[in-house]
Every structure is written in C-alpha cells, then in structure tokens.
Amino acid sequence: MSRVVVTGSAGAVGRRTCARLAELGHEVVGLDRRPGVIPAPGVVLRVVDLAVADLRAELEGADVVVHMAAGVTAGDVGTDTGHDRLAVVERLLSAADSVGVRHLVIRSSAMVYGAWPDNPVPLTEDAPVRPCPDFLFAVHRARMEEMAAAWVSGDGASGNGVAGDGDAGDPARVLTVLRPAVTVAEERPGGLASVVGAAASVRSDEGEPLGQFLHSDDLADAVACAVQARYHGPLNVAPDGWIGVDVMAELGGPGPRLRLPGRLAPVVGRLLWSTGLSPAPPGVYPYSVHPWVVANDRLRDLGWEPTHTNEEAYVAGHEPGVLDTMDARTRQQLSLAASGLVLVGLLWLVVRLARRSTRRG
Q1: Each residue's pLDDT tens digit, 241-258
Q2: What is the topology classification, in CATH, of domain 3-245+292-314?
Q3: What is the DSSP letter of 112?
Q4: Which residue, 79, 97, 193, 240, is the most exposed by fewest CB within 10 angstroms?
C-alpha cells in the first residue's frame, strides 16, 4: 500500500478522506494548520501551515498527495487573495516534484465548466473548462488545474491546460482532478453552498437554476476510489441527477425569495452584496441562472457509488432553525413579509443612490 499525505485533514472532507484511506490499508499523514481529532487508527496528523512550512520535509517518502485544503473561498473577491493561495499550491507542487511524488489528487470544482446558456445537461469531463470570469472561486480553481497539469508535464507550475487522458509528460506521474458539485457536511452547508443558495434566492426570468449537492462522505469516497485506481484525468463528482429551484426552496424551508426581470436581478444581487445583506458576490450570478450540472458516469465506472441523493445531501447540510419549527402558514407569511421588507429596502437604496448621483452632477 501507499504512503498518502492529505492536506486539509481537519476539515469535514479531509477527516473522512484520511479515515477511508486508512481503512484501505494506506499509511496516511494528514496536514492542516488546525489541530484535529485522529479520524482512524494509524492516521498521523501534523499541524502545518502550507504557506510557510518546509513542504519537502512534510512530503518526504509520500507516494500520493491529496490536496483538499480549502484555498480560495467562494466569497473572495480580491485578486490578491487568490494569488496568495495559488502561491501555496505552487509551493506544494514544487515540493512534490522535489521528493518524487508520483500521484497527485486535487480538489477542484464543477464550477470550472462555467454556467453558460449553451451548456449541455449534464456536462461530462470532455466539456471545455471556461469558468465565468467574474467569479474568482471558479477562475482560481481552473488556474489550479493548469498548475497541476504543468506538474505532470514537468514544466513547473506555470503551464497551461488541464489533465486529460493521454497527456504528454512524465508517464510515471498521475494527476487526478476531482470536480465536485456543491459539497455539504452534516448540518454544515459550507461557504460555497451558502453563496449559491443566497444567489438563487434572487431569481431571474432568464432561467431556472438546477442544483447538485454532494455529501462530504461521498466526496471522500471518491478520493479513495481515485487513489486506488490511480486514475489520470478529470473526474466529476456528483450524485445521480439534479434538483430544481422549487425543490431546493421546499427542502430549505422559509426565506425571502425574489423573482425579478433578467436585467434587474443582477443589479439587486450587487446591492445586496455591497450592503452586506447577502454573502453572494456578483460574479456568482450566472451560476444561479444557467445550467452547470455534471454527469458522474466516469467515476461510477471506477466503482464509486453515491450514498446520498441530492435531496438527502441538501437536507443534511441544512441546519434547522427557529422557522423550521413553525407551521406552514406562519412560515409562508413570514417569508412574504421578509421579501416585502427586502424590496422596500432595495427601493430605498436605489432612490438614495439616485439622489447622490444627482447632487454630484
């Protein structure tokens, strides 16, 4: 069996990944800047800051590196933040190159395909990588894939392209790029799920969003499957099928939801973001309108099977609140009242901004 180093081992997916790999007989070392609880016998955890540590020493003797550390988050909007976190990826790849790591598994995102009107439903791994340019989370995930592909080819961390079947380069090196759907853990929706949910609450008449929600346990099992198979190339990770916005609304419980004309919806989204009323940056807006759901056939062919449906994962990541204890009529009344207050607030903001613009003129 292999010696596997897992970054981000203190997170929900990282803990499960370490445990699953240990169950399969691998020697597992987890790295995280936060201390964690040992998830299974035989797993060694180390408190390590990937930005400053001697990563060559941490990766020495490793056959496989699984990079699960969060990196760029869904709420990031500054390019400097993304650059700094990609610099950590560059350090990790350089260390892996120095010590002779032969298999790299990285956690990317299905969002690298972008949300575009002409996207097929569902997207396969053969679809082009073209993230929506204003959503830095997806842009930087795509850039991370390029850097990892350069590691395979031996061109350093500045090349172009993504891993794929038959890529040129060192034939002994294997790169698995996991592209998961929105991932949630038990009663923890996670930052990306919160951002996508907030964006979907302002609905446009341009389209109806489709959702895929992946349980963290299923993502960890996908990592273990990729390590066992030594798979080279991209793998979509998602449950079978997808759910519509109405099902998401029903499962998620009450909350203000607006349906607006296409031109107005992104304006409202920007106002909600700029005033701190929404965690969804404006760049995520296309992902709440156009399709970007993915097919899981390639991963299933390797023997992976999801243990949670989209609905089950969505509910698992929904932390019950006070409103969930109310009857349906009361929840509906509160939801309508909240939507009305949001609209009034937005109208007030528009009027105020218009007056400021007039005064300056």
Answers
A1: 999 877 877 776 555 555
A2: Rossmann fold (3.40.50)
A3: G
A4: 79
